[in-house]
Every structure is written in C-alpha cells, then in structure tokens.
Request: fold
Amino acid sequence: MDPAQLQWQDGELQLEGLPLLSLARLAAEAHRNGDVTGVMVHGFNRWEWTEAEFDLGGERQTWVIDGLALRRGGSADRVRAEEYQVVKRKAVRYPRTALNNAMVTYYAPTAALVEVAVNPGTGEVTIHGLQNYMDCGRPIVRQLVEGQIEGGVAMGIGHALYEFLPPLGEGAGNGSWNLNRYQVPLAKHVPVWNQQHEMLPPETDKDPHKGIAEVVMIPIVAALAEAIYQATGKRFNETPITPEKLRRALNPQVL
Reply:
C-alpha cells in the first residue's frame, strides 16, 4: 500500500479498491490496540524548513519538523491511554542563519474589498462591508483558518484606523498604557455580520498547505486607505487614519 494514495474525503479515509473507513471506526481500532491517537509537532522555518530524524517502530524517519510528541490510545479493558510523550530525535539539521535575509514566500495570497462611509463633520469611518479572498492551499483545519482570517481582519482595521502609540518616553515604555488608553477595534468597529470570507479551492488534491496568521491584515490596511480615498478624495501616507486627521483634511478651515 502506498500511503501517498490515501486521502480524506467527506469524513472518510479512502483508498482505491478498499472499503471506506470512517474516523470513528479508525479511532476505535487505534484505542483498542493502543496505537497512536495524537501527534504534536514543532516546526522551524528559516527560508527553508528544519529537518530531523526519529526512530519509530524500529524505522528511521526524516520529517521537516524539529520536535515530535505522541499520545497512544487506550480502552477500558485493554490499554491505558498515555499522556503525550516526547520522541527523542536522532539527528537535526537547521537551515543556515544567513537565510534569515531571504524574503518570505510561504504566505498565502490574499486580497480584500472594503465598503466604508465617512462622516465629513467628525471624520469617523464606518465599515459597512468587507470581502476577503484567500488562497491557503489545502486547509488542515478549516475552522482554524477562518478564525485566523477574522482575527487578521480585526488587526488590519486596528492598524489602519485606530491603534497608535506616541514615540519615545510618552509611548508604551512609560508603563501607563493599557487598553484604557490604547484604542483597539471593538465589535462595533468591525463589521461582524457583514464580513464575507472566501477561501479559494485548491487547484489539485496535492496543493501544499500555506501559512496564514498576520498576513491577512496586509490587504485590509491597503483596502481601507483606498476606500477612504474613493469616498473623500484624500490620500493618507501614514496610519492610523484617525477621525481627527480626516476631519482636518476634509475641513482645513476648521482648527
């Protein structure tokens, strides 16, 4: 059997020519035999991934991780479930430090459209709608990717419109800054019910997984700056684009 031919589809493990196996059936068998039921790994990337070797079941395996821990299942009548146990690596190869200078290319492409309204009297920006598109390859846990997208959207809105710290001694280092002074976007600032996120389908079943995290916020900042320009005709070259900046730009005669 070639493991590369195995694939998950509609919640079942499939291999051509063999019956489908549900996750519940696989889990029951793993617990009955005390097989591996949980895996934790740690990866490190410096333009390329770290590789390490591990002995598993008498065989030497090489993976693009530098840490591995396993948990084995158990059933009431046969095997006691174990906590995670670290598997000691036999060898490890970290990428050269010089590769820190290389530009990151593992991120997922993402784009965004934002609909805003600007109050010319107060300079307040209200977001009425947001559409995000992302190519994340084959998501491992779709709900986690969706959560990262929503978090990245909030980060982008905060960076573009609200979050500011003065430099030097008046900034965060003086110990007096907290959320009572540092404005982060709240639910009323984020279009919770008017966000649309489209995760583009992978081109093939072999597409790689792609990193998400803070990369989502990048097009949000640009989209907001462009939407404000389209609404007001005013360009801004620094963030955050606060109501005060907008008010003064739209009403230069008002101090």
In short: The chain has a mean pLDDT of 88. The chain has four helices and twelve strands.
